Amino acid sequence: MSLLEDRAADLLNSLNIPDAGPRRIGKLVAYDGQMLEATGLSLPVGASVRVIDADGHATRAEIVGFKGERSLMMALDGEAPHSNGGRVEPDAKGGVAEVGYELLGRIVDATGHPLDGLGPVGASATWPLAGKPANPLDRARVTECFDMGVRAINALLTAGVGQRIAICAGSGVGKSVLMGQMIQGADADVIVVGLIGERSREVADFLATKLVPGVREKSVVVAVPADHPPVLRIRAAMRATAIAEYFRAQGKRVLLLIDSLTRCAHAQRELGLSLGEPPTMKGYPPSALGMIPRLIERAGADAHSGGSITALYTVLADGDDGDDPIVDTARAIVDGHIILSRSLSEQGVFPAIDVGRSLSRVMADIVDDEHGAAASSFRRLWSVYEENRDLILMGAYKAGSDPTIDEAIARRQEILSFLKQKPKERFELPLASAELIERFGA
């Protein structure tokens, strides 16, 4: 008997119980189809809970606010048969993301559950969904080129390791195709993709066509279609960023792609308006515009680990409006932006990059003088043609009046051909730079 007692004592002593106090359980008191209210909880905003339905099943929810003694919650699992007085339990795992090398090659949802049918992920570590507080001085400078595999970007909008880039365009102009080219051509150790608020068909198409063999093995995909609750769409972006932060802490060169940042802002708009926030520009509450810099600032290079997150965020310009609040907010916080032109896409120029309106803020620091001069020459010819486009097309411009305009007209097709690239083609950075210098250098 003493042997059994000794074993029992050993088992009890091995248990690590951080809080031996009672666990506070809440009670569901209101439900209007979107927002739930509970009493008896004292959990902070962002905490996760489990709501026991009338049929005894547990559904997930997140605390998004409070009114006096009532906690306001947003459901994560859609509609459920909730009943008055239902049990509301804390969920300790809701605020962290499961991370680790076991995620490579896997597809998960906003809560970390696998979608690929390959069984449990079995991640070995955790990382806060909201990220870890960082000192701005821990961010390393962008001093090294990042090969994107796209000729126009490598040559004219050269990206750097740790740069944050916004890809802005209207619907159907080629954002997702350009992202696929970058995924297949990027020089990265790990690729993390967040497919936020897209159509389910596009998610399946992206996985089948963009994650080719050799790329999928080093990729992690977090996918949440448009028909999911807004909290899940926000969580998916946070989870994808948290996974990227973990691999950066391991010293890896990470490429993070969020498609799209606008869908995240739309989700936050739904959430904010439900909580009674006042709408501002185009109906966006302050929390929707404030979420964008918080998400983007988590990317970048780490001076301590040597790892980096080079981030690409697609931004949907509603109605091709370049002054849309989300486009303007994202463009102001990133280190560069790529504007896609509908008129170019209608001419069959893909990727339809508007070179004159696009910019890489780190390019001057990471390319040599010869490359920079050739890029400036290309941009000069592009801008001169665009400024005089109406005169040229109407026939009002007289040849010989300005040698720069004459050169821009004569080389227009050469300029457009330099931008064109087939979806499966890859142009490495040295090749793109050499071709630019050869064709447009001094």
TrEMBL record:
Molecular function terms in GO for this entry? ATP binding; ATP hydrolysis activity; protein-exporting ATPase activity; proton-transporting ATP synthase activity, rotational mechanism
InterPro entries, alphabetized: AAA+_ATPase (IPR003593), ATPase_a/bsu_AS (IPR020003), ATPase_alpha/beta_chains (IPR050053), ATPase_F1/V1/A1_a/bsu_nucl-bd (IPR000194), ATPase_T3SS_FliI/YscN (IPR005714), P-loop_NTPase (IPR027417), T3SS_ATPase_C (IPR040627)
Q: What is its EC number?
A: 7.1.2.2
| Family (UniProt) | Belongs to the ATPase alpha/beta chains family.
Residue runs in coiled coils = none
Q: Which GO terms describe its cellular component?
A: cytoplasm; type III protein secretion system complex
* Protein name (Swiss-Prot/TrEMBL): Flagellum-specific ATP synthase
Location relative to the cell: Cytoplasm
Identify which top EC class this enzyme belongs to. translocase
* Biological source species: Sphingomonas chungangi
Keywords of the record, alphabetical order, are:
ATP synthesis, ATP-binding, Bacterial flagellum biogenesis, Bacterial flagellum protein export, Cytoplasm, Hydrogen ion transport, Ion transport, Nucleotide-binding, Protein transport, Translocase, Transport
Q: What is its main location?
A: cytoplasm
The segment(s) forming the AAA+ ATPase domain are 161-344
Q: Which Pfam families match?
A: ATP-synt_ab, T3SS_ATPase_C
Query: What catalytic activity is recorded?
Result: ATP + H2O + cellular proteinSide 1 = ADP + phosphate + cellular proteinSide 2
